[in-house]
Amino acid sequence: MPTAPIDPLLPANTEKYKATVQNAASKEGLVNGVWNAILNRRFPTDGLAWTINPEYHTQGGYPDFLVIHMENSGAYGAWTVLYEGKDASGDSFEKILTQLGGYTKDLKAGKFVYFIGAKGRACAFWKFTKGNSQETQQMSVKDKKVQLQNVTTAKQYDLVQDQTSISIILAYILDNLPTS
After folding, report:
1. What distances in angstroms separate CA 68 from CA 24, 122, 142, 159, one per listed residue?
2. Domains of the chain with CATH codes
3. Residues 32-57: pLDDT tens digits?
């Protein structure tokens, strides 16, 4: 069981949350806005323990968000999450995964980063490890535990219907942070 808290993605009025997510699904900027709120709740930027960097410049392009865990010294630390969002009719999860993989050129060999892909209300999670043979593992939840599988398919979760599973995956990420 994760040690990080498993609670609602956004502890707002449930009906308001559902309506917000549904209304945001048709526009990429609004999808990213919902995820910005979720990421800020899970990776709080107060005290600069985390930074959530929009359109961060990597050698492979500009992910919508790069979440960085700051070192105690205040120096930029480990990349934790690369996030790419689309509206509900946007690119497939296969294309989103390819796009996220393209952003990893700056990642050092042997290091890993988590990927979050969003498409309207749907989202998927992967763990990417850079090395001689790059490894992308799909993240899914079974019996309230995160499973890592060596497949590049997307186990999709719905932001309204699957809040518990999404929270378990985000807690897993917090319990298993990359190092710089």
Report:
1. 25, 23, 28, 23
2. 14-175 (3.90.1570)
3. 999 999 999 899 888 888 999 999 99
